[in-house]
Write a structure and sequence with these properties.
The structure holds two protein chains of two kinds.
Chain A: E1 6-17, E2 20-31, E3 35-39, H1 46-53, E4 61-66, E5 69-70, H2 76-82, E6 84-87, H3 99-108, H4 125-137, H5 153-165, E7 171-175, H6 186-199, E8 203-207, H7 211-217, E9 220-225, E10 228-233, H8 235-240, H9 242-252
Parallel strand pairs in A: 3-8, 3-9, 6-7, 7-8
Antiparallel strand pairs in A: 1-2, 1-4, 4-5, 9-10
Helix pairs in contact in A: 3-4, 3-5
Chain B: H1 2-10, H2 12-32, H3 36-40, H4 46-73, H5 81-97, H6 103-124, H7 130-149, H8 154-157, E1 163-164, H9 178-200, H10 203-220, H11 225-250, E2 253-254, H12 261-274, H13 280-300, H14 304-318, H15 322-329, H16 334-346
Antiparallel strand pairs in B: 1-2
Helix pairs in contact in B: 2-4, 2-9, 4-9, 4-11, 4-12, 4-13, 5-6, 5-7, 5-11, 6-11, 9-11, 10-11, 12-13, 12-15, 13-14, 13-15
Classes of the chains: A alpha/beta, B mainly alpha.
Bound molecules: adenosine-5'-triphosphate and magnesium ion.
Adenosine-5'-triphosphate (ATP) binds near residues 22, 40 and 46 of chain A.
Chain lengths: ~260, ~350
């Protein structure tokens, strides 16, 4: 594979909670246009690492670079405008607003008309069009006008993904997008993520527990363990890595079976 | 003209309200045997008296609308909201009486003060959330209440007696030009309501609703939520100030009770009765609140406040979505209503 550009990079990134180093001296480079999985046991620091990338947490030490620019400590609301979208392990939506309004708000954020307080929102045509496309894409057209809170969990996960897709970011940070989904719904969502990534040449960083999924869809995999990077490589390299096998994959996944 | 008919259909309810309220003094006049000319000349008895009650209700409704924009729409529960109203009322009184400024300068001063106060609240907005904001806002307003009440200020504010003898400009003198005052207050109420409805349907207003529902998510969508809260705060404080200014022009005495927590609670009650976040509930609630208070006071005298208090508590307990909210739901859902109320009061800290 030819060397590609780095979209996001961390240098010696650490986050301490009291005495606990949830993320411990992590330096990582993610190539543009790849699907990069981050795996690791519960409590490995994956979500905390995401929070550092997306600006939800400030690192104790270290830096984050996006397209070569230092973005450490930038306010959260700037992230999407730079092209970084982020979904959550625990569904984070607007439960009392309709599916349509959830997605619409996500699309509207990319407009520069947000302070026209006498304008009729329904007249923002590009926003409405974009909203309709995204709702269709995540397969929620029939539920568009019902409040998000009454959606079944699986559909709420789709909505969460829709919220990320609406502003059309270049880098998608997806924290266990299939968490809590019925097994038969998982492939559909994963396919959708792959499609988005490949068709638009986007970069996806995916935290996912389902090893079959990870091994199948990832270009590269980073294994985290106790806040540190344990290994990094292609799916085949990771599967063959003895250290990873013993520390983590052993009981969960075996390429040879 | 499509835009015109759109405007009419979109605002049908409030425009009907406007026409009914405009005709009401004449109808009441006919009932008591005064011709429309008599009503227009402010010589009717009952009609003039009820116009006065109407003015008080319109002012309360404007104030309650401004509270609903912050609490019901944006999710900011301010316990210092009365300050916006009271600063405008006292400023109007002092500027007219002590400083003897021309009316347009008074208006300018009041608007300026509204913006300054909103910005003052905005300093704390990004730092505190939920119930902490509520308490900080109460603190800010309490400082103003203490200043108004202090005996050092007696020459300016009248301290605990209230500010008396404010010379209202002749063209809106509430005694001799009662009907004109009534119409002006009505127009302010209707205009505020129409403007608020538009605001809530605008991109800015939708973000305010998003902030109420889940501020962290709104931030991550890419909205600088503090800026939106400041916008809502400025609009709200200007609205409350208009109500406060009308109050100062209408009432013979500006009482310091408009600066205390009780008056903010009045706005909260009105909005709860009418329906939180519904806007029209602020108008319905203001009528309900003032008319109930007025009627009971008539029959029960001073002990009425205990009864009215109990009525509100029971009402909110059983009709948590308020009158308009419940009508929209087309059913009573007490428990869900309580859950929603609680989450709103807690804020999304
Ligand atoms: N806000 C916090 N305060 C204190 N400790 C925290 C906080 N957030 C995370 N931790 C701790 O940091 C460690 C890493 O947690 P994190 O949520 O990042 O793990 P994870 O890899 O995402 O786990 P999972 O697979 O269960 O989602 C855990 O021990 C967790 O208890
Ligand atoms: Mg996690």
């Amino acid at each position: 594979m030819t060397a590609r550009e780095t979209i996001i990079e961390t240098q010696n990134l650490s986050k301490h909670f009291g005495g606990l180093a949830a993320v411990d001296d992590v330096s990582i480079k993610i190539e543009t246009g790849t699907l990069h999985a981050i795996i690791g046991p519960n409590g490995a620091g994956k979500t905390t690492f995401f929070n550092l990338l997306s600006g939800n947490l400030k690192p104790t030490t270290g830096k984050v670079f996006y397209k070569g620019q230092d973005i450490t400590g930038k306010p959260i609301y700037r992230m999407i405008h730079m092209g970084i979208g982020r979904s959550f392990q625990i569904t984070n939506i607007f439960p009392n607003l309709t599916v349509h309004e959830n997605i619409r708000l996500a699309s509207q954020a990319m407009e520069d008309k947000n302070f026209r307080f006498l304008m009729d929102t329904t007249k923002m045509q590009t926003v409405e069009e974009r909203t309709a496309i995204v709702i269709e894409k995540v397969g929620l057209s029939r539920q568009a006008d019902i409040p998000a809170r009454v959606l079944p969990h699986g559909d709420q996960r789709k909505l969460e993904l829709g919220i990320i897709l609406a502003p059309d970011p270049e880098l998608l940070l997806l924290d266990e997008p299939t968490a809590g989904m019925a097994t038969d719904q998982v492939p559909e969502l994963i396919t959708l993520i792959q499609e988005v990534q490949q068709s638009d040449d986007k970069t996806v960083i995916l935290v996912e527990h389902n090893m079959n999924v990870v091994m199948k869809v990832s270009d590269r995999i980073t294994v985290m363990h106790q806040g540190k990077i344990l290994a990094e490589g292609t799916p085949a390299e990771i599967a063959a890595n003895h250290e990873v096998q013993t520390a983590y994959l052993g009981g969960l996944y075996d390429l040879n079976t | 003209m499509t835009t015109n008919s759109n405007f009419l259909t979109r605002n049908r309810g409030i425009l009907i309200f406007f026409v009914v309220m405009l005709l009401a003094p004449f109808l009441i006049g006919l009932l008591e045997g005064s011709s429309p000319a008599v009503v227009l000349a402010n010589e009717g008895g009952l009609s003039k008296f009820l116009e006065g009650l109407g003015i008080e209700i319109f002012i309360l409704a404007i104030f309650a609308l401004s509270f609903d924009l912050l609490f019901g729409i944006t999710g900011l529960l301010s316990f210092g909201h009365a300050m916006f109203f009271a600063v405008a009322a006292y400023l109007t009184g002092i500027a007219l009486k002590t400083l003897q400024l021309p009316f347009w300068q008074v208006t300018l001063l009041v608007l300026l003060a509204a913006i300054v106060q909103a910005l003052l609240f905005s300093i704390v907005l990004p730092r505190v959330k939920g119930i902490t904001f509520t308490l900080v806002s109460l603190g800010l307003a309490s400082v103003f209440h203490i200043i108004v009440m202090s005996s050092d200020m007696i020459n300016l504010t009248g301290a605990d007696v209230g500010l008396q003898g404010v010379p209202t400009p002749a063209f809106i003198n509430p005694a001799s030009e009662r009907f004109r005052f009534y119409v002006i207050a009505l127009i302010f109420l209707v205009a505020t309501y129409i403007f608020y409805r538009r605001f809530v349907a605008s991109p800015t207003g939708r973000v305010c609703v998003a902030i109420r529902e889940n501020e962290d998510r709104a931030k991550m969508l890419g909205y600088s939520t503090t800026t939106f809260k400041v916008v809502a705060m400025i609009i709200s404080s200007i609205t409350a100030s208009i109500a406060g200014m009308l109050h100062a022009l209408y009432q013979p005495i500006i009482s310091p009770t408009v600066a205390d927590l009780g008056f903010t609670v009045t706005a909260l009650l009105i909005v709860l009765i009418g329906g939180v976040g519904t806007l029209s509930g602020a108008i319905v609630g203001a009528f309900g609140f003032r008319l109930l208070d007025f009627t009971l006071r008539r029959f029960l005298g001073e002990s009425a406040s205990f009864v009215t208090g109990s009525v509100y508590v029971i009402f909110v307990l059983f009709v948590p979505y308020g009158i308009i909210g419940t009508l929209r739901l087309e059913k009573l859902s007490t428990r869900a209503g309580w859950k929603e109320l609680f989450s709103r009061i807690r804020g999304n800290a």
